[in-house]
Amino acid sequence: MSDQEARRPTINDVARRAGVSKSLVSLVMRGAPQVSDARREAVLDAARQLGYRPNTVARSLVEGHTRTIGVVVSDLRNPWYVDILDGLRRTLKANGLRVLIGGGQLDHKVDPGVAEAFLDLRVEGLCVIGTLPYDEALAEAMKTVPSVVTSSHSYELPYVDSVVNDDEQGTRIATEYLLNLGHKRIAHIGGGTDGVAEARRRGYEGAMRAHGLAHFIQVEPCDYDETSGYAAASALLRGQNQPTAIIALNDLAGVGALSAADDAGLAVPADLSIIGYDNTPLAAVSHLSLSSVDPSSVEIGELAAIRLQARLRGDAGSAPETGSRDLIRPALVVRKSTAAPRADKEVP
Predict the structure, then answer these.
(1) DSSP state, 344?
(2) 68-166+296-328 has which CATH code?
């Protein structure tokens, strides 16, 4: 193959093939509306024949815009964050913006290189999804471009928009539901130190105290994964004050609790009711059928995209030094993992 044959086709090659000017090809590649359908199709057909791809990096340098948003995701294995990401991406894409995704943690610590890499790539905005520990480098990076955080209380900074679930209200709703079913020995697996975990613990404890059941409060530490959920639920089920219901930090921990109940020989929900949080697709799997608090994850992502685009446009009310906060009210989705306690397990 000769050098001429191997070289990458250029905009000039497309123009010659289509029989149009270079400037017209440029207009078509930018999606400009002032091009007739016939000419647009001629240019696109020539580009397909030649295998031409626009040099987006060069174009962004000329235009001063990359039309790209960097998204730092706390944990790409957590389906809750993926649901938020889905809503964010679809909304941004519909408005001509691309998304670059980076994992926010490395060895359980914030990866400082992710935000730095995004800024090197000249992203026009940043979004943080999930419960990342506070990191000064990331916080500083969010000062340099329009930024928004979703479902994280660690980065609710004065200059950043945030779209967060009312996590405290969510576990309060779950606890109230179990209380109305007749449960009193209700436990919570979670209680971590990050903002989301703290808020979810407060909601549970507040509801228990409001009903005069502070002496029944049990919080067993666990993280946002199935393994720690299993360990925490197993510890509760081995204890002297075995609960009749467990509210998990999230769905993954809730699945761990389901496994712990099964290994302990307990039937769900006859012997033990379990509620998760995040209402991920995992909770709806038929053989799990986990009741779960729905934080409207996709809607959170969509609203975060709207807030970010308003900052990019410089809309009124989106001043760089003033961040807005949207608190999204959750709702409980009841499935087969919850029921009234057995008569012989009720507490007078």
Answers:
(1) G
(2) 3.40.50.2300
CA distance 307 to 318: 8
167-294+333-345: CATH number:
3.40.50.2300
Q: Which two tokens stand for residue 99?
A: 């998304």
Q: List the structure tokens of 104.
A: 């926010």
Q: What is the strand order of the sheet 161-165 is part of?
A: 98-103, 68-73, 125-129, 147-150, 161-165, 325-328
Angle at 166 between CA 314 and CA 291, to 5 degrees: 130
Sign of CA dihedral 76, 307, 119, 150: negative
Q: Each residue of 35-53: pLDDT tens digit?
A: 888 888 998 898 889 888 7
Q: Which CATH number fits domain 3-54: 1.10.287.130, 1.10.260.40, 3.30.450.20, 3.40.50.620?
A: 1.10.260.40
Rounded Cα–Cα distance for residues 88 and 303 (Å): 8
CA distance 108 to 130: 13
Structural tokens at position 110: 């914030």
Q: What is the pLDDT of residue 74?
A: 87
Question: What CA–CA distance (Å, rounded) separates 74 from 79?
Answer: 11
Total number of residues shown for the chain:
348
Per-residue model confidence as pLDDT tens digits over 89-133: 999 999 889 999 988 777 767 787 888 888 888 899 999 998 888
Structure tokens given for 62: 């000329």
Closest by CA to 175, choosing from 146, 219, 208, is 208
- 289 by Cβ neighbours in 10 Å (0-12 / 13-18 / 19+) ranks as middle
DSSP letters of 211-239? TT-GGG-EEEE--SSHHHHHHHHHHHHHS
